[in-house]
């Protein structure tokens, strides 16, 4: 190969690499996309009527979920930072004892009859969403796979790559020991971790989706 051709092909090669890293890597349009995570075994399979944004109360029941009540809000954006409305946000989590309302969760942690455990929300104006829940418990110590507190989320809207992820919380001592969390890069961990606001028990969590076409 002549020197000039070699330089040209090397330049094209590195450009190709750049394009690939923009498409499949973390960086797109200046914003990092929310990283993906596995679904886990406990996506709800028992039908339930109440899937609203307050997971601390079940419609028609008197009483409130046990644990620390927390508020989470945020916005959904595309990779260019445009807010996306009408995005479906389907989320589920363990109760404050670390137990899922799922027939396959056979840990000895108690069920909380007042905890809703599952919500399906839509992002509204400017892609905003919010929900009230309890701080999920770590899976019990006797569970074979101990997990740090997390919330599972499935996000979908026509025209965007659907996203399956998990939300984490800052300053959780188990984060460093969590098998799934540890596998992520520092930057990915940052994207997946809600940020504490100045209000007590309130967190901000923004979601970045990839346009499908
Ligand atoms: Fe989980």
Automatic annotation (TrEMBL):
Keywords: Dioxygenase, Oxidoreductase, Signal. It comes from the Bacteria. Residues 72-100 form the Intradiol ring-cleavage dioxygenases domain. PROSITE patterns: INTRADIOL_DIOXYGENAS. InterPro entries: 3_4-PCD, Intradiol_dOase_C, Intradiol_dOase_core, Intradiol_RC_Dioxygenase. One of its GO terms (molecular function) is ferric iron binding. The keyword Signal applies. Residues 1-28 form the signal peptide. The keyword Membrane does not apply. PANTHER family: DIOXYGENASE, PUTATIVE (AFU_ORTHOLOGUE AFUA_2G02910)-RELATED (PTHR33711), INTRADIOL RING-CLEAVAGE DIOXYGENASES DOMAIN-CONTAINING PROTEIN (PTHR33711:SF10). Belongs to the intradiol ring-cleavage dioxygenase family. This is Protocatechuate 3,4-dioxygenase beta subunit.
């Amino acid at each position: 190969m002549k020197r000039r051709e070699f330089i040209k092909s090397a330049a094209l090669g590195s450009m190709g690499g750049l394009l690939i890293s923009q498409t499949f890597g973390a960086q797109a349009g200046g914003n990092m996309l929310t990283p993906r995570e596995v679904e886990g075994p406990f996506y709800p399979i028992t039908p339930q009527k109440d899937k609203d944004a307050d997971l601390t109360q079940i419609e028609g029941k008197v009483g409130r979920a046990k644990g620390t009540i927390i508020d989470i809000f945020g916005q959904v954006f595309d990779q260019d930072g445009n807010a996306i409305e009408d995005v479906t946000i389907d989320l589920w989590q363990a109760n404050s004892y670390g137990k899922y309302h799922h027939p396959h969760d056979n840990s000895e942690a108690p069920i909380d009859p007042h905890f809703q455990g599952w919500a399906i929300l839509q992002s509204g104006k400017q892609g905003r969403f919010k929900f009230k829940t309890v701080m999920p418990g770590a899976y019990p110590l006797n569970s074979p796979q101990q997990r740090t507190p997390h919330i599972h989320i499935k996000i979908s809207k026509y025209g965007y790559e659907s996203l399956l992820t998990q939300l984490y919380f800052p300053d959780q001592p188990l984060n460093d020991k969590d098998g799934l969390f540890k596998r992520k890069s520092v930057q990915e961990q940052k994207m997946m971790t809600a940020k504490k606001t100045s209000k007590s028990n309130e967190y901000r969590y923004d979601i970045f989706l990839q346009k499908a076409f």
